[in-house]
Amino acid sequence: MQTYNLNIFGLEVSFKTEAEPERVQKACTYAETLYEALKLHGSHLGRDRLLTILILGITDDLLQLKQQTALRDSRLKALLEFIDKQERPDGRKV
Fold first, then answer.
1. Mean pLDDT, the chain, whole residue set
2. What is the pTM of this model?
3. Do residues 81 and 74 lie in contact, with contact meaning Cβ atoms separated by under 8 Å?
């Protein structure tokens, strides 16, 4: 497990993870990009509120993706079951 010491959102953060450095850097860059965009529109808000809004936005995105993935998986399962029930012209199952 690798230890990371980062300065993100003006905060010093230390943590351990099995994630590769490139993955950690991508996540930090993405979060900081979203944070900077929020700061432009919410410059009157403090860092804690901006970070809360950021967390809620990312969490909402994640939940929507999970819902879309579950729906896709359900449709794929139904399609596979449909295909399994089909017979070839010679009477054999597909």
1. 93
2. 0.75
3. no
